[in-house]
Amino acid sequence: MKTYEKHLPPILVKSSSNATISLKAGRWFISYKVDVEPEPVEHPHGCVGVDLGVKTLATLSDGKTFPAVKAYRKQGRKIARLQRSVSRKVKGSNNRRKAIKKLQKAHHRVACIRNDATHKLTAYLAKNHSEVVIEDLNVSGMMKNHRLAQAIADGGFYEFRRQLEYKCQWYGSNKTVVDRFYPSSKTCSHCGHIHKELKLRDRTFICPNCGFFLDRDWNAAINLAKAGSSPASACGASKSAICLGGSDASKQE
User: Fold this and answer.
1) pLDDT (tens digit, 9 = 90+) per residue, 59-115?
2) Would residue 248 show up in a list of annotated catalytic residues for this protein?
3) For the chain, the helix, strand and coil percentages under 3-state DSSP, each to the nearest 5
4) Domain regions of the chain by residue span
5) Active site includes 217?
6) Environment class of residue 49 by beta-carbon count within 10 Å: exposed (0-12), middle (13-18) or buried (19+)?
7) What pTM was estimated for this model as a whole?
């Protein structure tokens, strides 16, 4: 393989420590590793809670929503057709290799679309907020729900958390992870009452105690923001103490 670049960035020429060449879906990629000092930025906003979902990729405590791209779902028919085409080809033939390459390109396109949406979301959160509060989701347990498994996998929740972690370090913001048992969706963000009878199909939270109603994901994001900004909790630590406090409140009621 030969390549020629007329102008390389000076930072790659002077301080490149190594390079990795990889082949993905019939295309060659080269990655350089360079040492760069992160520059913290001034965050225009303070603490924000982020509730990840299926219909919307993320709902923020300030009311902003990021729609789910659903890359695999939109390309599902095309991928299924290409998979059938591969299975019909003779093993070891040139036609089979061509069909496999087309299938690889389709999967690679889905991954690129998903990563693009995740990169834009995590960069926005880390650059514009001094503290980002998320929930410690049990992704493997959620994947056992066969009705939602494909949508959850298409959302890329694990990749979202991985990117958010290093981007918060880049831009000098704090990432707070709330305990997975904290009832963010069932707690009223207005009065603090825990709605035990709330079902997954209920997309609007209606508090039986004070009558407050709000979008379910938005209500959960507000509760996450309150949990992150609690003086009793440290940024970046698991909020098991908050979870226990919520269970005590439910016992009293």
Assistant:
1) 999 999 998 888 888 888 999 999 999 999 999 999 999 999 999 999 999 999 999
2) no
3) 45, 20, 35
4) 1-36, 39-68+116-252
5) yes
6) buried
7) 0.76
